[in-house]
Design brief:
The protein is mostly beta strands. The chain contains 1 helix and 9 strands; from the N terminus they run αβββββββββ. The strands form 3 sheets. Strands 2-1-4-7 form a 4-stranded mixed beta sheet, with no helix packed on it. The chain has a 3-stranded mixed beta sheet with strand order 3-9-8, with no helix packed on it.
Length: 130
């Protein structure tokens, strides 16, 4: 077995005109949110608390189409969707049966979102990023 010290390896790569790749940053955690259809559409859990860099994945296990809408221009009532300063609006598009949508949150703050088809029935959720 050959053992090469990190400094020697970096020097060797430098002589070849190469650089050592930086170590990968630790990935954030993933939190799952499920869409339930009865008695009305709801996000479960309705509120999730995560850290910057974490990902939320929504899953629609049912046959009814839903959306994950973080865009006030697509909501029936714009004030139902709230984004922290600096966050860009986004939307999943239609999520059919067994579809998933994931988003990694990079800005701290409170995000409120809706299903644009069932917002008036109270289908709203919250993501708190710290």
């Amino acid at each position: 077995m050959i053992i090469i010290h990190r400094r020697s390896f970096a020097k060797f790569l430098g002589m070849l005109g190469l650089t050592a790749a930086a170590p990968a940053l630790a990935q954030g955690k993933t939190v799952d949110v499920s869409i339930k259809n009865s008695p009305k559409g709801v996000f479960v859990p309705a509120t999730v608390n995560i850290s910057v860099g974490d990902t939320v994945t929504w899953t629609n296990p049912g046959a009814i189409t839903h959306t994950i809408t973080f865009d006030p221009t697509k909501a029936m009532t714009a004030s139902d969707v709230v984004l922290p300063a600096g966050a860009t609006p986004f939307d999943s598009g239609d999520l059919e049966e067994d579809a998933t949508f994931s988003h990694t949150f990079t800005t701290k703050g409170t995000y409120k979102y809706v299903c644009k088809y069932h917002e008036m029935m109270g289908m709203v959720g919250t993501v708190v990023v710290s």
